[in-house]
Specification:
With 191 residues, this protein is mainly alpha-helical. The chain has six helices and four strands; from the N terminus they run αααββααββα.
């Protein structure tokens, strides 16, 4: 059984219109309703109590749905208890722990072997290309772009396009090509 309930501040507007005796009867009716009991009220108080009762019932239904959802999650294994000796273990909800010795923590490196270290985030980090890489790519793709102008443009912009850091310079070359068809590298009409 739920040990608490919430009353909305809207109730104060209704309570302010009542005498202290009527407000006391409403409050006792609320307590009794939450405990599963009923209270006899006169006709006027029933009108005031009905919306309060309906809100309490909706809140209880919502609570019951939440409890059932948590019960099902718990039956599936739930969130594992924290391990104070190794807090990186079992950070997400999982049924069982496959191999506790092969977990990856949120550090940047992982021991691949005893002597080698591999950078986990390396594939996600952008490294600006060299002029030679750009020339090679443009030649391979047979794009009519001046690689020096492309390189100079983005190098001076610190490899930003507007306010966004470039993530894929090859896609940027293709965009440069599409945006400048029929124009020179800086957008002026070619003659």
């Amino acid at each position: 059984m739920k040990k608490s309930f919430i009353l909305m501040r809207d109730l104060l507007d209704t309570i302010d219109l009542m005498t202290d005796e009527e407000a006391g009867q409403i409050f006792k009716s609320i307590i009794n309703h939450v405990d599963g009991n009923q209270t006899e009220l006169n006709r006027e108080l029933i009108f005031a109590f009905t919306p309060i009762r309906n809100q309490l019932d909706r809140d209880m239904e919502k609570y019951d749905v939440f409890v059932e959802k948590q019960r099902k999650n718990g039956a599936l294994g739930g969130r594992p208890r924290s391990n104070p000796k190794n807090p990186s273990l079992l950070k997400k909800t999982q049924k069982t722990q496959a191999n506790p010795n092969n977990l990856v923590t949120d550090t940047d490196t992982v021991n691949a072997t005893e002597n080698d270290t591999v950078n986990v985030n390396q594939k996600n980090r952008f490294t600006p290309p060299t002029l030679q890489q750009i020339k090679s790519y443009i030649t391979e793709q047979n794009y009519p772009i001046d690689s020096q102008k492309f390189y100079d443009h983005y190098e001076t912009a610190n490899w930003y396009r507007g306010k966004t850091k470039i993530k894929n310079w090859k896609a940027c070359v293709r965009t440069w090509l599409n945006g400048n068809s029929g124009k020179s590298a800086y957008g002026a009409d070619s003659i």
